[in-house]
Amino acid sequence: MTMVWSDSYETGNAEVDGQHRHLFELVNLIISVQTTDELKPLLMRLYKHTREHFQQEEELIRNKGFPGLAGHIDGHNRLLSRLNALSAEVGRGVFNKAELVTLVSEWVVNHILHDDIQTLNHQADKAPSKS
């Protein structure tokens, strides 16, 4: 299994899209590893990248005046908590690759397609159309 970027994941924000592409690269590296020794540094990179990405994304959304910001942040926090829990298991030598692959692949696809595109394309002050 490999995560493949497609135009349907584009949010319209070049910086966010670049971060999402990098997320796909990290996920594909995680999918390809076979041992906990290979996985540990990748999980650290994934967590760091994700936390930084979420902070930048939340600031963009806040600046757009998106009314669902609190819910979006809650979603980010839930994803980070799940990633932390799986990382803790890996730290104890438990390598449930299927669960990890499911988390990162569903998270990447669902979060980008269903949450990020909606929130980043929201415009707080849309002008009424002139007819």
Annotate the secondary structure layout:
Blueprint lengths: L13 H19 L3 H29 L4 H23 L5 H24 L11
Account of the protein in words:
With 131 residues, this protein is mainly alpha-helical. It is 73% helix and 0% strand. The protein is built from four helices and no strands. Helix 2 packs antiparallel against helix 3 and helix 3 runs antiparallel to helix 4. The protein is globular, with a radius of gyration of 16 Å. The N and C termini lie far apart (49 Å). 16% of the residues are buried. The C terminus is likely disordered.
Brief summary:
With 131 residues, the chain is mainly alpha-helical.
List the main descriptive attributes of the protein structure presented here.
single chain, 131 residues, mainly alpha, 73% helix, globular
Query: Roughly what is the average pLDDT, rounded to an integer?
Result: 83
Secondary structure class reads mainly alpha
Beta percentage is: under 5%
What value does the Rg take, in angstroms?
A: 16 Å
The description of the largest β-sheet is:
none
Globally, the shape reads globular
